[in-house]
Specification:
heterodimer, A: 316 residues, mainly alpha, MetI-like fold, 2 strands, B: 279 residues, globular
Amino acid sequence: MSDALSVQDGQPTARRPKRWHILVFLLPAFLIYSAVMILPLIETLRLSLFNTVDGQPAFVGLANFQTLFGDERWAHDFWNALKNNVIFFIIHMCVQNPIGVALAAMLSIPKLRFVTFYRTAIFLPTLLSFVIVGFIWKLILSPIWGVAPGMLDLVGLKTLFAPWLGKPGSALIAVSLISVWQYVGIPMMLIYAALLNIPDEVIEAAECDGVTGWSQFWKIKLPLILPAIGIISILTFVGNFNAFDLIYTVQGALAGPDGSTDILGTLLYRTFFGFQLQLGDRSMGATIATVMFLIILAGVSLYLFVIQRRMRRYQF
Amino acid sequence: MSKARNSIFRTGFVHVALIAYTLVSLFPVFLTIVNSFKDRNAIFRAPLMIPTPQTFSLIGYETVLGQGDFATYFQNSFIVTIVSIALVLLFGAMAAFALSEYRFRGNTVMGLYLAIGIMIPIRLGTVAILQGMVAANLVNTLTALILVYTAQGLPLAIFILSEFMRTVSDDLKNAGRIDGLSEYAIFFRLVLPLVRPAMATVAVFTMIPIWNDLWFPLILAPAEATKTVTLGSQIFIGQFVTNWNAVLAALSLAILPVLVLYVIFSRQLIRGITAGAVK
């Protein structure tokens, strides 16, 4: 017999029996989550304060961070990766999210035909693995195959073509745009959902007041979907500062040419795992992971405690 | 009158823009699949043409199936993905039920604790995860991957499922209790069947990052016997980089299962995103 029932049966004086089923329901998820996710995360943060001294692991305080920011070689790599990561993020914010909003705004036009088809097709790249996306674009942009120059030739712009992925000046932008191509489906879907949730009465009221078309979008719909734009911004932020796979498949672990596409994820991989002549370094890997953790934590906290609180929400 | 014409014009413009973007998103996939069925000369001479009887060739697929051990890779990916999803759904639903059904001390704290993982990526703990897997002798086993993906999928699953479970009527559960059902029976026989649509949504959300992940297979299970499709095609393509037939065929093979699953689940996925994502 269940514990809830025995409580209802009476015996108000007796202590409420231990409800073991709650523990049974929670335990498996709690154990796996704690053991594989939270404890390793804490252990990684702790490891960043340790290093090998004379073959023995020893507590070194913040010395690893001093090396990362102070040592010329480390600092150069780190600031380069951080700078690239920031550019990577800015390109996503300025290209991916506006395109996503625009596509969603078009899809949500009432009585538009073929919406399901457009939606399905535009979301497809999001489901493909980085390996597929990376290699397809590498082939398309390759000067050997000539698909990209050939297509530019069709519109008379062949002179614009350059091996974008191979030039330090344009490689990061090219990789970022590939990532934008892959992920534009996510902001599109979330904004689309937010737009569909706007009640018809609000739109009708706007139309009665003569607010239609563009000004309706800017003055009525955009303020109402700002919370959704906040969510996609923070999702983009976490995703970008944690990115690794696409750069790894397109440019390799060295994130060439000449480190111009190196971001924190690839730096972490090379540092922790080693690559070619460089040996893997656990402590410095943990240090970089800790810095990434702090960056992501700062972004998430800024969103949760500042942006989300100030954002005006409308209840329908 | 002019307003009607204006609106037709605008609808036309919207369709042109949407078709243009649809082409941008489908073109690379189309290009890959089409060229994987052509011979080497045709791939280079006319990359945009569909295969004709003269240029049709399966040489790429023959190379891939002859050289790479793709059957094993697919099997590994399927095992890892399916077991992880099953564990995420079972354990996630159990935890979500406990959090949404019972009032107990620490309920809110536990909810927040389990939600950390939604925002903080599990990858940041990789250094210690690898260390732990080495200590537990789990490196190069599928178990290691399953554990990691289960932990990765649980936070979002618990969050979504507990939102849904709050909507299950209390009267129904209390009726079950009066009929003498145990709390376990109420969960498995009354609540689980009712949240099945939400479970399907969670399954699709959980599946995509697991199937496509490269980071953990690369670090935790890079051995030949435990490679997943994603890692396997990455390495295969790296080795056959000059054999364009093989590369394109390998890419097409890797796209195929995702395409099939998407066609089956797209309605569920899109309904899931549009229903509960923005609250």
